[in-house]
Specification:
two-stranded antiparallel sheet; 5% strand; mainly alpha
Length: 175
């Protein structure tokens, strides 16, 4: 065989292989593409399912974050209300507030305590609690306007201020 004959044989044999391997061609190549179709559909379905799952997961997380934000606001509001109520309780339980409210209800301070023992004996002398005398109102001092001290007239010179009860410092010479 000559060199040209070998090239022609190779070309024909190579072309036949290319025709068989070409997509869409008739023969065993078309069957290979038909076998790939379910695999491609499976991959596309898995990708679509994964994307939908991510979307649903993201939505659930966003809903949870909105609920968390709402609960934080509610917690803040309830904490503020609890602190306001605690201030009210502290104000009502202060000793002066309790004493004032007890007087309004007509309660009087008790005397010395009397204790009952387990055998029924009393320790101490029971006495009837009596209302203390109402406190006498303290007189309010009437405000007097401050008056300027009167000046005394000295026939020899200028007017001298009236003497007051507090000694005045004398000027120190040389200063």
């Amino acid at each position: 065989m000559t060199k040209a004959g070998k090239v022609a044989t190779l070309t024909r044999g190579g072309a036949a292989r290319l025709v068989r391997a070409r997509p869409g061609g008739s023969g065993p190549g078309g069957a290979r593409q038909a076998a790939r179709m379910p695999f491609v559909l499976l991959v596309v379905a898995l990708l679509a399912g994964g994307l939908i799952s991510l979307l649903l997961l993201n939505s659930a997380l966003n809903q949870g974050s909105f609920q968390l934000s709402r609960l934080k606001k509610e917690t803040t509001a309830l904490t503020d209300e609890q602190q306001a109520l605690q201030r009210d309780v502290d104000g009502y339980s202060a000793p002066d507030a309790l004493q004032r409210r007890a007087r309004e209800l007509g309660l009087v301070p008790g005397g010395s305590p009397v204790f009952l023992g387990p055998d029924g004996k009393t320790a101490g002398t029971p006495v009837v609690a009596e209302a203390p005398a109402p406190p006498s109102p303290t007189p309010t001092p009437t405000p007097t306007p401050p008056s300027a001290p009167a000046a005394t007239q000295n026939p020899d010179g200028p007017a001298q201020p009236a003497p007051s009860g507090t000694p005045q410092p004398s000027p120190t010479p040389g200063r």
